[in-house]
Amino acid sequence: MLERNMDEALKAFMADPLGTAGLLVEYGLKGAAPLTAALAVIVAGVAVWLWRRRSHRGRTNVLTRRAFSQAEGQLWTRLNAAMPGHVIGIGVPLTRFVAVRKDGGLGRHRRRLETLSADFGVFRGDGTISTVVLLEDGEASLGRRQAKLRRKLLERAGIRWVTWSVASLPTVDAITRQLNPVPIQFAAGESGSAKRGVDGGSARRGMSDSVDPDTRLVASVR
What we know:
This protein is α+β, with helices and mostly antiparallel strands. It has 8 helices and 6 strands. Helix 1 crosses helix 3 and helix 4 packs across helix 8.
């Protein structure tokens, strides 16, 4: 009974703390010194805090949130339709498919590299990367330096990447044409390999390059 009355009193105080405190001073502490009245109000406030803490005990502060936006879900569906036989990943960390040596060069930014991710990764069935899709909206929120570092890393690795806008996502047919280019026809006597420099002209420097058969991009061997 006492506990029930206490709960009701605390609920009343919580609903109108100033009014309850005024009644407490007017009726319960009539004739008491101002300091005594102030202490009584403080004690009542502490009691309310303890009651609220007990009532919230056991509740979790871990909540769920959306893993991707509606536009990202639409693009994922279109990529799957346009790229059969491939695996489409959302928000894939770059370190999942790019390895950077620790010594020198980009290795000096290793911690920053570990925070970078591709908005979408188009992977072949064997787990190798085919294409990285970047969204302009994500580029803006990422920051200029981080976005530049991400593009530089993709270029150094010889990975094809495209940038699309969420406001005008490509159709399935457009994705198919862009990410599945027509095979190159070679003239008689030409070697059956094609190279397109994407790392600042490594092919012209005479480096040994391996050709990515899916993207027709040069993946430099380092």
